[in-house]
Amino acid sequence: MYETVDDVLADIDAIPHGDLPWTSFNVRYNGPVDADSPSWMHETYTVHARDTFAVQQQFLANQDFANGFDYTPYEAYTHDGNRTWSNLLSGRWAWKQADQIAVDPNTHGSMFAPVILGADKTTVSVATGNSEYHPVYMSLGNISNDLRRGHCDAVVPVAFLAIPKTCRENEKKDDFRLFRKQLYHASLAHILQPLREGMTTPQVLMCPDGHYRRVIFELGPFIADYPEQVLLAGIVQGWCPKCLALNNNLDTDGLLRFRAFTEQMCATYSEQDLWDAFGIVGAVKPFTMEFPRADIHELLSPDILHQLIKGTFKDHLVTWIEDYINSAHPPAVAKQIMDDIDRRIAAVPGFPGLRRFHEGCKFKQWTGNDSKALMKVFIPSITGHVPDAMVRCVVAFTDFCYLARRSSHTTQDLDKMELALQ
At the top level of its lineage, which domain of life is listed (predicted)? Predict the structure, then answer.
């Protein structure tokens, strides 16, 4: 018999089978603190995490992945000779990284195992009192996309990051903002530390086919929306995490950012010059600096849902159309046009794959599925109400978005995406 609930939970946690256990570690501000310092400097922040090496070991030992697991980078071609890209190891990046492993005598012959990461701070409104959480997810790049999309435990949460809070007076101050960024990167570096030895020294681990192989881990793509990318890359909001193109001159190609460039700039210029000229937050050291062959600017991967579907389409294009109509017409006429757009959207006949919006596009709260469904009927609803050039812009974006959402891409697909951008 158990005397308390804690006794029951302790016995449950002691069961050796099932999911990997969670542990916690605390982080505190280590700068000068006195009695008058703001409260956030005195607080202890708790991060919950799993052993990331054990997570990868569990991925590799899972025999359910045996029929969808790539052991080496490869090139795939269609029957007519066009190269096709789908799984991570079919890409050029994986081939290049595997070449680096092969050149090193200590790692030559080892299996390349890229670690896929993702993070997205979110507010959970159901049964939590609108609590904020900042989960970090992990997968293994050798696993095929079909298995990863199939809810086969190929993507698992590995951490919940701390979210520092303070009063409104302090939340806009530079020292608090800098602390949040440093806490973020220090936490990620600590969470991934168990994998670091396996990035330079081969680890003999069992694979899904039951055989043991020498494995070299490496940080792979980090999937994140733009605000998260800004935080990850250690750049200023409004700058590109991939290149130095200015946001007011996107037609001009910008030089690519890369790890050695950032390190050299930080060693050469003052923090203010870095901020103004290069969009670099000099006081923030990206967590990838702690790991070999890892370049955060190269590893950042776009989040299609938040950057294309909800970001570009819902937050930019739909808002852009509404702003144009409201600015180009008197209020009464603009209202009539918006009502007609809603009427057109609501008049879409029932058809498999098409969603009916009975009230048009007047949503109290948008979801990703709302945006995806609206994309299918938005172009005919605005035709005739806005200039043809604006309609062509929406058409070009829609073409690009549908191509980007494909599970695999050929050389021709990439050419079509490039054409849509032009």
Answer: Eukaryota
Segment among 115-124, 165-174, 385-394 with least mean pLDDT: 165-174
Beta carbons of 217 and 195 less than 8 angstroms apart? yes
pLDDT averaged over every residue in the chain: 90
Query: Stretch 17-31: mean pLDDT, rounded?
Result: 86
How far apart CA 97 and CA 116 sit, in angstroms, is 14
Instruction: Please check the confidence at residue 235 and state whether its pLDDT lies above 70.
Output: yes
C-alpha to C-alpha distances, 110 to 67, 204, 376, nearest whole angstrom: 21, 9, 46
CA distance 58 to 32: 42
Residue found under tokens 């005195």: 42
Length of the chain: 422
Greatest extent of the chain over all pairs of C-alpha atoms, in Å: 75
**Statement: residue 124 has pLDDT above 80:** no
Q: Which DSSP state fits 157?
A: E
- Cα separation of 336 and 349, whole Å? 22
Work out the average pLDDT over 397-418.
Answer: 93
Pairing of strands 212-224, 111-119: parallel
Q: Is the pLDDT of residue 127 over 70?
A: no
| 111-119 vs 83-85, strand pairing mode | unpaired
On the question of pLDDT at 232 being above 70, the answer is: yes
**Cα gap 99→104, rounded to integer Å:** 9
- CA–CA distances in Å: residue 25 to residues 49, 245, 304: 8, 39, 32
Please, which pLDDT band fits residue 274 given cuts at 50, 70 and 90?
very high
- Taking the C-alpha atoms of residue 119 and residue 157, their distance in angstroms, rounded to an integer, is 9
Terminal-residue alpha carbon distance, the chain: 71
Instruction: Tell me the sheet residues that pair with 354.
Output: 351
For residues 286 and 282, give the distance between their C-alpha atoms in angstroms, rounded to a whole number: 10
Q: Which residues contact 212 (CB under 8 A, 6 or more apart)?
A: 204, 205, 206
Indicate whether this model's pTM tops 0.85: yes
The answer to whether 86 and 149 are in contact (CB under 8 A) is no
* Crossing angle for the helix pair 331-346 and 368-382, to the nearest 10 degrees: 110
Q: Where do the H-state alpha helices sit in 33-113?
A: 39-42, 52-61, 92-103
